[in-house]
Amino acid sequence: MVCATVKKGQECTFMSKKGCTFNGGSCYQIVDQCKGCNHVTEFSSGWYCTAYPDPSAKWRNGNCNFATHLKQETKNRNNKTNPLKASKRNFR
Ligand code: SF4
After folding, report:
1. What is the C-alpha to C-alpha distance for residues 78 and 31, in angstroms, rounded to an integer?
2. Looking at the predicted structure, is the pLDDT value of residue 7 above 70?
3. Which atom of ligand 1 is nearest to the CA of 70?
4. Contacts (Cβ under 8 Å, ≥6 apart) of 4
5. Domain ranges of the chain
6. pLDDT digit string (tens) for 16-50?
7. d(CA 66, CA 55)
8. What pLDDT was estimated at residue 67?
9. How far apart are CA 31 and CA 28, in angstroms?
10. How far apart are CA 11 and CA 18, in angstroms?
């Protein structure tokens, strides 16, 4: 259903005929770590995440897995080669 609380006009799975069914009855605003993420959207009620209703919970145990602004960092980390493995490869 379409949200009628803090993200008015946004389609949401937590919205029901009885109102918002999410913990506390509405979404929570973004946290500092969210700044730069493409899911951050401004609504008349404040800044919210369009992917998850409680951003602070997403960051509680490490990086948010929905974050778009961390992909570059992850990609660079994956491109690094292990020098020990690379040297072994050269001996074959
Ligand atoms: S996807 Fe994660 S990092 Fe991005 S706004 Fe939502 S909670 Fe914050």
Report:
1. 27
2. yes
3. 3
4. 15, 19, 20
5. 29-90
6. 999 999 998 999 999 999 999 999 999 999 999 99
7. 10
8. 95
9. 9
10. 15
User: Shortest CA distance to 43 belongs to which of 34, 56, 32, 30?
Assistant: 30
- Indicate the pTM of the whole model: 0.74
Distances (CA, A) of 32 to 15, 43, 87: 26, 17, 42
Nearest-CA residue for atom 2 of ligand 1: 67
Residue 41 C-alpha to ligand 1 middle, in angstroms? 10
Ligand 1: atom nearest CA of 31 is 8
> What is the atom index within ligand 1 of the atom nearest the CA of 66?
1
Nearest CA-CA partner of 33 in 76, 73, 75: 73
